[in-house]
Design brief:
five-stranded parallel beta sheet; globular; two-stranded parallel sheet; alpha/beta
């Protein structure tokens, strides 16, 4: 009987606590702790490649290209840099591999000292200019490449010549394949660099960019390897951008730091998701500054 009374007493307390909502109180404490995590503000600027190397999927015909070193574009770039300076970044990361850090350190110091003429690349035209304007000591190289699955390598690297031939045929002939070269007119020649950057960083453009990786080559499969497409895209694109994100995490920051990420526009369809989801960072819309 005493045991029954004891169990009844415990059950009564549990019910009372539940009715008085004492259980969720622990969750509210957890949420409060989470809200106290200091987030580093991040501004991501997706850009077209100013020198038009045409190494990406999207190509620009020679007749549609511009020379960013022309006076009118130099003035526009200075105007864009002035807009970005209002974010007051303390760290700038660029689409160059860490192994090139020493080279970029040397180039940047030389530029600050008046001994280096800027190349046409967006890393120098925007990154170097902005860093010097804000008195930053360096910019950070954080690019990375993805790693293929072994089964993907067997096809892509050609150890299985028949499978590789079939893959390449799909690569170049499937109308939905993202890997087919796309020649597209952009706004920089007709409306200017700023208009093009706004377009590339719009939510609509970024969302479509991610969707492109879920069709075409993503659906490719072979007999006995039905998941080739997802594995290929994972290693080639998702893995690469996760590695880039990890490299950016390696840039030491304090709660007061503000990071500007200057990369090719295509990367923002994943990097923006990572920054927005991460408890360490607070993503700031770049078009708030470009508009």
């Amino acid at each position: 009987m005493k045991k029954l009374i004891g169990l009844f007493f415990i059950a009564s307390i549990f019910c009372a606590c539940k009715n008085n909502k004492t259980v969720p109180k622990h969750n509210s404490i957890t949420k409060e702790k989470e809200s106290n995590i200091t987030q580093t503000k991040v501004l991501t600027l997706g850009s077209f490649h100013f020198t038009f190397p045409n190494l990406d999927i999207t190509k620009t015909n020679k007749k549609d290209q511009i020379n960013v070193l022309d006076t009118k574009y130099q003035k526009e770039i200075e105007f864009i840099v002035a807009k970005l300076a209002k974010f007051k970044p303390t760290k700038i990361v660029i689409e160059r591999e860490p192994k090139r850090q020493q080279t970029y350190d040397s180039l940047y110091v030389s530029y600050v000292n008046g001994n280096h003429k800027l190349s046409g690349s967006e890393e120098q035209q925007i990154g170097f200019r902005l860093a010097k304007r804000l008195g930053l000591s360096k910019i950070y190289c954080t690019d990375a490449w993805g790693t293929d699955y072994e089964d993907v390598k067997k096809i892509v690297d050609g150890s299985d010549s028949i499978a590789k031939e079939k893959f390449l045929h799909y690569f170049f002939n499937n109308p939905d394949s993202i890997l087919k070269p796309v020649h597209r007119k952009s706004l920089f020649k007709t409306e200017g660099i700023l208009a093009e950057l706004k377009r590339l960083n719009s939510a609509e453009y970024i969302k479509k960019g991610l969707g492109d990786y879920l069709i075409g080559i993503f659906k490719y499969e072979t007999k006995g390897y039905e998941q080739f497409g997802p594995d290929y895209v994972t290693s080639w694109w998702f893995n690469r951008n996760l590695r880039i994100f990890r490299n950016i995490q390696r840039v030491s920051t304090t709660p007061e730091d503000r990071i500007l990420v200057l990369y090719g526009a295509g990367h923002m369809n994943l990097l923006n998701i990572f920054f927005d989801a991460s408890p360490e960072y607070k993503l700031v819309p770049v078009n708030d500054y470009l508009n």
